[in-house]
Amino acid sequence: xxxxxxxxxxxxxxxxxxxxxxxxxxxxxxxxxxxxxxxxxxxxxxxxxxxxxxxxxxxxxxxxxxxxxxxxxxxxxxxxxxxxxxxxxxxxxxxxxxxxxxxxxxxxxxxxxxxxxxxxxxxxxxxxxxxxxxxxxxxxxxxxxxxxxxxxxxxxxxxxxxxxxxxxxxxxxxxxxxxxxxxxxxxxxxxxxxxxxxxxxxxxxxxxxxxxxxxxxxxxxxxxxxxxxxxxxxxxxxxxxxxxxxxxxxxxxxxxxxxxxxxxxxxxxxxxxxxxxxxxxxxxxxxxxxxxxxxxxxxxxxxxxxxxxxxxxxxxxxxxxxxxxxxxxxxxxxxxxxxxxxxxxxxxxxxxxxxxxxxxxxxxxxxxxxxxxxxxxxxxxxxxxxxxxxxxxxxxxxxxxxxxxxxxxxxxxxxxxxxxxxxxxxxxxxxxxxxxxxxxxxxxxxxxxxxxxxxxxxxxxxxxxxxxxxxxxxxxxxx
Length: 479
What we know:
Blueprint: E1 3-6, E2 18-21, E3 31-39, H1 43-54, E4 59-62, E5 74-76, E6 83-85, H2 97-103, E7 110-111, E8 118-123, H3 138-152, H4 156-159, H5 180-187, H6 193-200, H7 212-218, H8 221-229, E9 233-234, H9 241-250, E10 254-255, E11 258-266, E12 269-276, E13 281-291, H10 297-300, H11 307-313, E14 317-327, E15 335-340, E16 357-363, E17 371-378, H12 384-400, E18 413-419, E19 422-424, H13 429-433, H14 436-441, E20 449-451, H15 461-476
Parallel strand pairs: 3-4, 3-13, 4-10, 8-15, 13-20
Antiparallel strand pairs: 1-2, 5-6, 7-9, 11-12, 12-13, 14-17, 14-18, 14-19, 15-16, 16-17
Helix pairs in contact: 1-9, 1-15, 3-8
C-alpha cells in the first residue's frame, strides 16, 4: 500500500493519526496534478466540476459508482425509448438550476405531472386496509402548505441555500428547537404533513418529536413555494441526461468506479491515493479538495480526521432509504399502495410514519407493464437484501389478509434497485445550542478542504447547486 498511518502520540486513535504517502511508488503516468480534486459525482460534485471546468480550473472528479448521477436513477425499458425515473422525480426553478441544464444542452422541459392512480392505504402492522383513516383533502393540504410557507419565510435568510449565517446559540429562534408536533398543531398545518413527508422524505420512524429545525431544513420555504406554485419541472429526455452530458464534457478528468484509499491534507494542499475497481492506484496532488459525498466518520476515515473534524462528524446519524423499479403482478396497475402506521387513524396526519419503516408502491406505466416504483425507508440499519426481504414480507402480509387479491406468493421482480442512504444531523436541542452549526461550518476551508452536498443544505438538487455556488467563490480565493 502506498500510504500508512503514523500515530502522532501514543494511544491516539487511528482517525487522528497522520497519513504519509510514498510518492516514489507512483509513475508519472499514474500521478495527476490538478487545481481541485472533487470527491463524489452526485448532484453537487458534478455541478461543481462543470463550474470549475468553465472557470478554466483543472479538476479531477472521483466517483465510486460507474456513472455520475447521485440520487438520480433512470430505468430504460429494454427495447424501447421509454424511461422510468425512480430516483429524483423533478427539479425546482431555483438558483442556477435551469441555466445548468441549458449549459449542458438539456432543455429544462415541462411542468412535472405525477402519474394519476388510485391510492390504497394499508395498515403497516397488519396488512389490512387502514379502515377509518381520512386523508386530508387537496384543499386542506394546499391551505396548510400556504400557512407553512408563510411560517418558513422568516428563516430563509439563514437556511437558504445553506447555513453560513445560522444564528449564534443564544439567538436561535425558540420555535426551531421545539418538537415539530407542538409547532404544527399551533399553526394548524397537520393536513400538509403527509405531503411534506412524501416530498421531503422526512420523519422516518415518526415526525412528531423531531426538532422543528429539521423539518424546516427538509421541507422549507423553497420547496414549499415550488409545491404551492406547482412549479416543479422535468428536463426534456430524462433526469439522467444532464449527468450523461457532464460525463461527456469532463470525461478525461473523471475517475469512475474509484475510491480514495488514503490522503494527506494540509493548508498547502492535498495528496490522495485513489484506487479503482481493477486495483490500479493513482496519486492525485491538488491545491484544494472539495468533498461532496456525505462526510460521515466512515466516509472520511481515508482522509485522516483531526480532533475537530471527528468531534463534529461523530454526532450524525445514518439513514437508510431505497428506491427501485419492480414488476409486481399482484397489484392492479391503476393502483398505488401506501403502507401507513395504524396510529394515523382517524385523522392523525402527524402519525402516518410512526413505524420503524415506510413503504409505497407507485404505478409507473406504461400500460400492461405492471411496473411500480418501490420506495422503502427505515430508521434502522438494513442491507440491500434485507430491504428487499422486508418489502416482500409486507406485500405478502397484505395478500394473506385479503387486502390484495392474489393466490399464493407475489414476489416483486426487480428491474432496478438503488440505495439513497445518507446521514442527518438529528442532534438534540442541547447540541444545537452548543454551537454545532458554527462548528460544522468552521470546517469549511480547513486543511485545504471544502464541502458541499446534501449535508450542508436542503436535500434537493436545485438547493444543492445553489449552495455549491456559495462554496466555490470561497474555494477559489485560495487558488
